[in-house]
Amino acid sequence: MIEVYDKGNGVYVIKIVMKEVHTLDVPDLKEKLQQTIIDNGIKKMVIDLANVKMITSSGIGIFLNINQSLRSQLRLAAANEEVKKVLDLTKVTSVIKLFHSVEEALSSLK
To answer: Which of 9, 48, 84, 93 could form a disulfide with 15 if both were Cys (CB 3.0 to 4.6 A apart)?
Structure first.
């Protein structure tokens, strides 16, 4: 479901390794992400969406939740056109910055 990469100084990359994030997946994914933040003391986070081909609006709600708990230190990266469209339509990109690559997203957190 997710892979966790420690980049040092409380900065983490979380890769979502699901092709599709449906409404039924949301509680599980949210729980895993929140537990990862708590267990690792995450202060800043990049969510790598490269593997995600489709996401529902309820899935996107998770990002807003996490962004709030991380005091706007969340970045999204590597979304495909379909996922980008949903992020734009739901106005998430007005709240959370979206980057072409994980590296660009990490640079923005420094």
So the answer is: 48
State how far the Cα of 61 lies from the Cα of 33, in Å rounded to an integer.
13
Predicted TM-score (pTM) of the model is: 0.95
Q: Looking at 1-110, which runs of residues are DSSP E strands?
A: 2-6, 11-16, 20-21, 44-48, 54-55, 74-77, 97-99
Query: Over the stretch 77-108, which tens digit does the pLDDT of each residue have?
Result: 999 999 999 999 999 999 999 999 999 999 99
Burial 38-55 (b: 16+ CB within 10 A, else e): eeeebebbbbbbeebeeb
**CATH annotation of 2-108:** 3.30.750.24
